[in-house]
Amino acid sequence: MKHRSIYYISVLALCVVSYGVADASPRKKVKIGVESEPAPVETVESLHVAVGNQNVRGEWIIIKASGKEIDTLDERAYLFFSRHDNKLYGYTGCNYINSDYKAEGGKIAFSNIIISQRRCDAIRDEASILNALNRAASYEIYKDNRLDLEILDVKDKSGKVVLHTKRHKADVLSGVWSVKSIHGERIDAGKVQLVIDIPEAHLHGSVGCNIINGDIGLDRNKDWFIQFQGITASNKSCGDVNMSLRRELLIALEEVEYIDKQSDSVYSLLDKNKKEVILLNRENIKLPE
Question: Which helix (H) or strand (E) holds 248?
């Protein structure tokens, strides 16, 4: 069973801390005798960008294990690294995994691996995943610019990748956000702030004098899916305007099911009909590791 840790972050404290669409234009004609410049070559270095934060915490969806593509017809296999108890909780597509792990200085090791004994069709991928965990020696986290994904590669002693995993697309929302609009109605700057932590699957926020907390639900088979669940809010009286805003925010959060990227700093949260319910603007504040 997936382990989920929930913690509460004060937004005020955080403020102190510090689709690709192909080009549809017609191809330009090249005059005979005139050489066109060669297209720039994409190198591994340009596609894979190092990530400063090498913390493995949170959930990673398994793409390959021991060089083998992992079946994604049913629920995707995943690994969840709990930073609070140094435990690994995972799913092979058939059985659940539980083990201890140590990740430090680019080195990683798993021990005391326990796995449930259910039998199912997806069990064929299980040996590949377990073999990879047993061979693990080091890891690297980087950004794949082609896919706009954060990647975790686990390698064996020879440096060969034995586990190739990715964060859920919703990870782009990890951070501190100001709400620009709710159901199309503009919100004054600073009136509503949300702290979204995808690895820890937790939502925290403030609206007026009230505090909001909730859990985050992801669907591993839907890349841009997100839901906010179990939302609670304090009920201090902050005036009619703020109380109305609090009510509108809670309703909107309950409606959210999809993410739509407008730019690197602006994202829309959409309802089940792909209609925008909340517009977010990223604040230049990082979540604590």
Answer: helix 240-255
